[in-house]
């Protein structure tokens, strides 16, 4: 895995299950057209964003070493990012939300290394290096915002998903891929959009992950900062979109004060946003994040927390009041008067304390699941965890004693106590029995012939969250995507156009100044009559060199392109305007 990226002190701390998402950047795969797309967007963005972006953005461009003229090289970025305590890795498009946020918790920026096509230069629903590199990276140079991003990842990766969330993630990933892919049919795109739309309208009760993703969208991706009357841009989705960064500043986009209500406002990644939220400052973002975190099962636990894990149908963890943590796929909870009485996992389960697996209680021991009562014993005010050694002896909760423990929730545990484990505070957290029967009314939950019964001790569930307590307890290297970014074989025409772009790039950078730009223009007009970006780049060189005759030829060609493709008119005009402004300045 290490051959996929150049490691450093920050990346070395990444757990293995996150490294499975990393892919090599393959910088040489970027064509001269890709480089021209980057350059156009960055020149347009920096020109416009200097007026409307938060001041941290332009400062961050310099601090993170992101060039206007070249797609950033991940290795170079990492050498600079480490000075602000961050790193970057390349991935293939969308990755699962929990993983995306967990990367952030480790101060690692996830960058989709592909770049949008020229046809989608203003906006793409697919994550790309313009969005990530030009949007996310510069703003993290602001220490307060960077800490918000890290903290968001730390909390967000613990958010519990629903089974439908992953289905929606795969559908959105597929849509983003085919919308960006060359030669995708309108029928296929429409079908993918229909599936996403159907899923979004039938998600049921939103999960924690769905809600925190809303917060992520309205801040990290599409956030505004300052006053409602004069906001500035800091969200990466806006910073990287030459279309939407201008659109969002108009009165057509409603500006709302950012508060916890944004949690419940859904979004559509395929359309410009009709409203945006304005935070007064970066510190306010952290306040709202903590307000949301207080509603999560991570901090509330209880019956609702277990039920969220059951609904997720995925690996999760509950923590009891003694600190013991049970990690597995939760499938059942018995309740009484709104309180959990018994929890059950199915399949491999591990027990931990303070995120460290208990010796002898990994998935090899509990490979068929784990069940345990929760709560106090019936008729005894003192919970087991609060009993002193003398109390435990008085109630026969002692090694080699045969005992029947009847819990308030109706669970009964009968067997011979073998031993127990205590936490650092001396509270008993686990009791092991042999010849044990566990029952609830007439239902047998554990039989003696099943072997040793390990009972977790705790009067309440204090936390429930996504993923395992100890990362090494489970094999998490299991990620498989249903679709990968599509790279089709280039046609001779496309390769010829790339060659022309490369010649102009070489001329501008001084690596080959013998190229005839007039001949390049002639070939462009003859063989690629609707291409506009190379013509704009040729115009820039001719304009800077005061070559009036060549400028006139190029402008005449661009007028023809605008007549044939009116939808390209504003892109051409914007490109020419940047050239003229640069010359004047």
TrEMBL record:
<dbReference type="InterPro" id="IPR036951">
    <property type="entry name" value="ArAA_hydroxylase_sf"/>
</dbReference>
<dbReference type="GO" id="GO:0016714">
    <property type="term" value="F:oxidoreductase activity, acting on paired donors, with incorporation or reduction of molecular oxygen, reduced pteridine as one donor, and incorporation of one atom of oxygen"/>
</dbReference>
<feature type="binding site">
    <location>
        <position position="131"/>
    </location>
    <ligand>
        <name>Fe cation</name>
    </ligand>
</feature>
<keyword id="KW-0408">Iron</keyword>
<protein>
    <submittedName>
        <fullName>Aromatic amino acid hydroxylase</fullName>
    </submittedName>
</protein>
<dbReference type="Pfam" id="PF00351">
    <property type="entry name" value="Biopterin_H"/>
</dbReference>
<keyword id="KW-0479">Metal-binding</keyword>
<dbReference type="InterPro" id="IPR001273">
    <property type="entry name" value="ArAA_hydroxylase"/>
</dbReference>
<comment type="similarity">
    <text>Belongs to the biopterin-dependent aromatic amino acid hydroxylase family.</text>
</comment>
<feature type="binding site">
    <location>
        <position position="221"/>
    </location>
    <ligand>
        <name>Fe cation</name>
    </ligand>
</feature>
<feature type="binding site">
    <location>
        <position position="136"/>
    </location>
    <ligand>
        <name>Fe cation</name>
    </ligand>
</feature>
<keyword id="KW-0560">Oxidoreductase</keyword>
<keyword id="KW-0503">Monooxygenase</keyword>
<feature type="domain" description="Biopterin-dependent aromatic amino acid hydroxylase family profile">
    <location>
        <begin position="1"/>
        <end position="259"/>
    </location>
</feature>
<dbReference type="InterPro" id="IPR036329">
    <property type="entry name" value="Aro-AA_hydroxylase_C_sf"/>
</dbReference>
<dbReference type="GO" id="GO:0009072">
    <property type="term" value="P:aromatic amino acid metabolic process"/>
</dbReference>
<dbReference type="GO" id="GO:0005506">
    <property type="term" value="F:iron ion binding"/>
</dbReference>
<dbReference type="InterPro" id="IPR019774">
    <property type="entry name" value="Aromatic-AA_hydroxylase_C"/>
</dbReference>
